[in-house]
Specification:
Helices cover 45% and strands 14% of the residues. Helix 4 packs across helix 5, helix 9 packs parallel to helix 12 and helix 11 runs antiparallel to helix 12. The radius of gyration is 23 Å and the shape is globular. It has two domains: 194 residues, Rossmann fold (3-Layer(aba) Sandwich); 198 residues, 3-Layer(aba) Sandwich (Rossmann fold), CATH 3.40.50.720. The longest helix is centred in the middle third of the chain and has 32 residues. A six-stranded parallel β-sheet has the order 3-2-1-4-5-6, with helices on both faces. A six-stranded parallel β-sheet has the order 11-10-9-12-13-14. By secondary structure, the chain is of the alpha/beta class. The chain binds nicotinamide-adenine-dinucleotide. Nicotinamide-adenine-dinucleotide (NAD) binds next to helix 1 and helix 5. Nicotinamide-adenine-dinucleotide binds next to helix 1 and helix 5.
């Protein structure tokens, strides 16, 4: 099929590349001309394992191309995926101006039937606005369908997630749209959940809110564990082995971040309030998440006493391992709080140094590896559980630090072993 992907970020680039790899003819468009220029030079603007090779392969096979000319991309395609960003506004609602702009360009350049698919995460009922916009600005009386096809890929395993999804959700209101989308996803041989458009829009927000709730739930439990003196990892194991609950997303720590959970939670709270059902439980989920970041700072303070002029080595900046994404990363928030308290920060992340430099500039010292970040530090604080932080030479580490103090923000180390090796150790909810 001929596909246009509008918005070539994490979701658009992965979606476009994977669909090309499945044999479709894909044009990825974006209004960021620099990004398109890079992509046309095989220079991938994001860190995502396996993506670069797949982009190159499909460009060489002439199944994947990149353009800043959105009009041409629209004209050439039968199916158009909207994958632009939907960032939060001040009031927490989703900023849908990108969706509106793209809908208008689609309307003005439709020269034949088009299936327009919302893949960006949008509040329920956005499809109505997209449809109205297309009806209002559409020049020709060409027929079109709208569909919702929320994306569940995770950064760092995006290609695997796209190619082997647990399920594909499609929201449609015509048989034609359903047939096209079923055919497109057929090679993935996965369960396809078909519902109406509102249902599909809602599934994405409900899904992310549920996962965020699970994380805040175990973080709340971790605070009880700290108070009674037991280890939350064992508690999570004990409850997670119940298949109705499941161990995944029961990792206590410094909280969730990334470009989706915090934003989608805000948007869902906002839309439910607007619909007349204030979803207060989700406000508590947010509150617990904020408290975890402050908890990290207070645990460091408990171990170091006063923070002014203390040096803190930060291990990991990305919001999770195997990505360079620092959007809403707890590490950045915690670093800001530590700086405000007078501490000096040395940091290292295997992939997110460049993005952190763009965010924090010269307010912190950028280091070349884990040991460099720990040199002369009064405390090392692990923020992201990259594999390389699991293979530390502890004697070497101890010899470079000013004080052997560790805050394990992701509970990846064994507290007893750390103590035996002479470290002062604090985890999250480990008694
Ligand atoms: P992103 O910021 O990485 O990419 C968005 C792209 O859209 C950018 O390249 C931007 O230049 C482009 N864009 C913005 N306005 C445009 C316009 N008017 N015309 C053309 N291009 C335009 O964002 P992302 O992480 O890919 O997320 C996109 C959507 O998918 C969001 O709604 C997000 O919530 C959702 N989502 C993201 C993930 C994820 O893990 N990143 C997962 C599932 C769903």
């Amino acid at each position: 099929m001929k596909l246009a992907i509008i918005g070539t970020g994490y979701v658009g680039l992965v979606t476009g590349t994977c669909f090309a790899d499945l044999g479709n003819e894909v044009v990825c468009a974006d209004n960021d001309e620099k990004k398109i220029e890079s992509l046309n030079n095989d220079d991938i603007p994001i860190y995502e394992p396996g993506l670069e090779e797949l982009v190159r392969k499909n460009r060489r096979n002439n199944r994947l191309s990149f353009t800043a000319d959105i009009k041409e991309a629209v004209k050439a395609a039968e199916v158009i995926f909207i994958c632009v960003g939907t960032p939060p506004r001040e009031d927490g609602s989703a900023d849908l101006t990108g969706i509106e702009k793209v809908s208008r360009v689609i309307a003005e350049n439709m020269d034949s039937y088009k299936l327009i698919v919302e893949k960006s995460t949008v509040p329920v009922e956005t499809n109505r606005w997209v449809k109205d916009t297309i009806n209002m600005f559409g020049k020709n009386s060409n027929k079109f369908d709208i569909a919702s096809n929320p994306e569940f890929l995770r950064e760092s395993t995006a290609i695997e997630d796209f190619m082997n999804p647990d399920r594909v959700v499609i929201g449609v209101e015509s048989e034609k749209a359903e047939k096209i989308l079923r055919e497109l996803y057929e090679p993935l041989r996965t369960k396809i959940v078909v519902t109406n458009i509102k249902g599909a829009e809602l599934i994405k927000h409900a899904s992310n809110s549920f996962l965020a709730t699970k994380i805040s739930f175990i973080n709340a439990i971790s605070n009880i564990c700290d108070k009674v003196g037991t280890d939350v990892n064992a508690v999570a194991e004990g409850i997670g082995l119940d298949p109705r609950i499941n161990r995944r997303f029961l990792g206590a720590g410094i909280g969730f971040g990334g470009s989706c959970f915090p934003k989608d939670l805000k948007a869902f709270i906002h839309i439910s309030e607007r619909l007349g059902y204030p979803f207060d439980m989700l406000k508590e989920v947010q509150k617990i998440n904020e408290m975890q970041k402050e908890l990290a700072v207070s645990k460091i303070t408990d171990m170091l006493w006063n923070l002014p002029d203390k040096i803190i080595g930060i291990w990991g900046l990305a919001f999770k391992p195997n990505t360079d994404d620092i959007r809403s990363a707890p590490s950045i928030d915690i670093i800001r709080r530590l700086i405000a308290a007078g501490a000096k920060i040395k940091a290292f992340d295997p992939a997110a140094m460049e993005k952190t430099r763009a965010e924090l500039g010269d307010r912190i010292i950028y280091c070349k590896d884990a040991y460099d970040a720990a040199r002369d530090a009064d405390c090392v604080a692990l923020m992201t559980e990259w594999n390389e932080f699991k293979e530390i030479d502890w004697q070497r580490l101890k010899s470079v630090m000013r004080q052997p103090v560790i805050l394990d923000g992701r509970n990846i180390y064994d507290p007893e072993k750390m103590k035996d090796m002479g470290f002062r150790y604090a985890g999250i909810g480990r008694g």
